Each structure stands twice: as structure tokens, then as C-alpha cells.
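Worked example 3. Consider a protein that binds zinc ion.
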Amino acid sequence: MKKKKQHRGRWAPFVLLVTVAVLVIAAIVAVSVLVFGGSKTAPESTTAATTTQTDATQSQTESTQPETTTAPETTTEPETTAATTKPATSANVTGNAAQGDVSVGSLVLVNADHLYSFPDVEKVHMTSDTGYTMAYDTLYMNKECYTAFQSMCADFSAKYPQGDLLVISGFRTYQRQKELFQNSVAKNGSYEAARKWTALPGASDHHTGYAFDFSLDYEGDGIYSWIRENCYRYGFVVRFEASKSAITGISNEPWHFRYVGVPHAYYMMQNNLCLEEYIDLLYDYPEDGQHLTFTYEDGTEYEVYYVKGTDLSDVKKPAGNYTISGNNIDGFIVTIAK
Ligand SMILES: [Zn+2]
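Given these inputs, the predicted complex is written out as C-alpha cells:
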């Protein structure tokens, strides 16, 4: 014992020195972690940084955020650069259904029951033009939809030069919708409240490239009621009406327009049908049964019917002027113009 005591006493100053040195090094390491390690994790806690359309690259830092949705992850999510160059392979088949995919075409129904599979279809980069301005320079749209959109805005501004149309949203990726939904949960207070205003990722009409939003304070009244009354002439419908919210699952959105093509927009408006109701109605008009027929205001007669199938080769091509679109469920809609 005595020897040990002496031994400890002799080495005590050295042990004390080492202990102090270790403590100092530990303190330096701790401060370093707080300063440098802390700055690395900071972006993940600032979700406000993802509230604009232009910050697609920042979204990559959010991969560690907890999932707030039950929607399954899709492996077919496109890159954040929306434009693709794959064209329709047949001039006679518009709506790009030539790829043989029921998720392709201007009549695809995308909602919480029918998620989108993000087929590789061409989209064009939007630029400000006659009658409208853009909130962001990174907006994309399906080409067919974009042409109709530009025509509608030009005609509106010719009639109402004082008009001020601002487009804030076009095509959206899965990742972008995921960010918007997370923001909506934060803004509206709960998952259920968010669902009334914001589609789940994979379930957004914007995924199709056939939809766009004017600014969210756009009510479609005053001079803008012209757009609501005439949009069918360009192939558009107001996608989410208050009266249809029980069917669409989305509350009133007067600013959200969806391209479905002129004859279909006309028929939907005439018969007060939302897209869910129209696609459902078309099951009553199968290929081998009575077809839906109606006459557009310019005298063109349209014949519309449903064909069950998963590939365009399942569809017997009719004679004459026709278009084919998938319904994003289980088949195709054939439209013949006479
Ligand atoms: Zn929208």
C-alpha cells in the first residue's frame, strides 16, 4: 500500500497534466462539431427554402426529412429537368398515345385513386408571351397544351388589354409535389387539412403536363370570367370546381386549368361533368357498343368510345380523323371527328 501511495504521489502531476490536456482536446473537438457539423445540418431544418419553383436543386437536401405521406415512392420519377425529347411516333395519333401507354394522352385521369407513372413524353419550356407573364422561368408544359394555352391568353388579351395573367405552375415532378405537400401540411396544420388543398405526390394533375395554375389569388371573376366561359374553345376545363370537390377530393381551385381537348372540354362543360365523371361515363360507350356522339358548335360531329387495353396495339384504328388517349386506368379513349 505504502509503495503504491508513493508511486501515485510521484506520478500525480503528470496524470493531472494529461487529464487537463485530454479535457482541452475534447473541448476543442466538441466546439468544432457544433460549429462545422451544425452548419451541415442547418439546411434540412429550413423547409421554407423550398417554397419557390426555382429551387429544384435544393430539394435534394431534404432527403432525410421524415415522410409525411403514405403515397408509395415511385422509381419512375423523372429528373427535375422536365423537358424530354421523345415525340409521338404517329402523326395520326395526337395526345402522344403512340407510346402505347394508358398514362399517355390528354384525357389521362390522375388523382389519389389513379397515380401517375411518369411516362417519357415531350414537354416544352414555357416563356412569357402575348397576354401572360410567368412567375418562374422554369415552367414546362405538354406541347399540345402549351399551344392551346398561348392561343387562349392571346385572345383574352386582345379582348381585355388591361388583363394581367400570371402563370405560376405547369408540369411538376414527383419530388416537387412531395415538397409542396410537406409545405401544405406545415401551412394547414395537418395531413388531412393539407389533402383538401394539395394532391399527394403521384396524384397531382400537374404531373400530366396538361395542367397549369394562374396566380392563387385568381378568382376567374370580372374580366377573367371570359376565360372560364371560353376556355373549352381551347380545350381547357376548370379542373376543380367547388361543386365537385366531393368527387375530385380537391377544394375549389378557380386558378387551375386542365387541357383535355376541345370536344371533351365542350362536352364536359355542357353536361357539368368533372374529369372523374367524364372518364367514368365513357365506360358506358365501349368500342363494340353505342358510341357517344355530339356536335360541336362549329358543326363538327364527334364520336367517342372506350377501348379496354394496356397497349396502343390493343386499339383498332378507325378510319378518318381520330385521336387516341389513355385514361390512366385501364384503357384508351378514341375520338373521331367528322
Ligand atoms: Zn394547380
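Take a moment to read the result before moving on. Confidence is low (pLDDT under 50) at residues 1-9, 14-18, 27-96. The two ends are 112 Å apart (CA to CA).
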